[in-house]
Amino acid sequence: MDVFYSFDLPGEVLTIHYTGEPTIEEWTETMEAAMADPRFRPGIRMLLDRHLVGTPSPEFVRGVAEFVGTHRATLAQIRCAIVVGGPGAYGMARMGQALLDFHGVTFEIFDTPESAEAWLRDGG
């Protein structure tokens, strides 16, 4: 599988790690597992770390938006950062921002894991 999750900083940050380009089904399965994990709670911070993988397809981004829309009551309460690895990935993340804004879910885009972690840790 090209995506997995972990809880870091003693359960304070849920990190979604991308080791390749997952299918939307793999991503959904990972998110459902993370949300079912007993360490998951309202208000947890989430880091989507895509900095080592390429640009996702528009279909993947739309699939993520659909999942988020279905779970917006939970996910709108989460402070979320995404780390991207290039201009194409940044553009797709901006597309994701526009789609998720419709559901009342927001996230910030970063180019390094360190800057995203600092933003999550320090409250922006």
Structure description:
With 124 residues, the protein is an alpha/beta fold. It is 44% helix and 20% strand. It has five helices and five strands. The protein has helices spanning 24-36, 58-70, 72-75, 87-101, 113-122, and strands spanning 3-8, 13-18, 45-49, 79-83, 108-110. Strands 1-2-3-4-5 form a five-stranded mixed β-sheet, with helices on both faces. Helix 2 runs parallel beside helix 4 (87-101). The longest helix is centred in the last third of the chain and has 15 residues, at 87-101. The protein is globular. The model has no long low-confidence stretch (mean pLDDT 93).
Label this structure with key terms.
globular, 5 helices, alpha/beta, 5-stranded mixed β-sheet
Give me the secondary-structure category: alpha/beta
Instruction: Describe the sheet with the most strands.
Output: 5 strands, mixed
Roughly what fraction of the amino acids lie in strands? 15-25%
C-alpha-based Rg, rounded: 13 Å
Q: How do the SSEs run, as a string of H and E?
A: EEHEHHEHEH
The total count of helices amounts to: 5
Assembly state of the chains shown: single chain
How helix-rich are the residues, as a percent range? 40-55%
Indicate the low-confidence ranges by residue numbers: none
Q: Distance N terminus to C terminus?
A: 32 Å
Strand order of the largest sheet: 1-2-3-4-5
- Give the number of DSSP strands: 5
Principal-axis shape equals globular
Mean pLDDT figure: 93
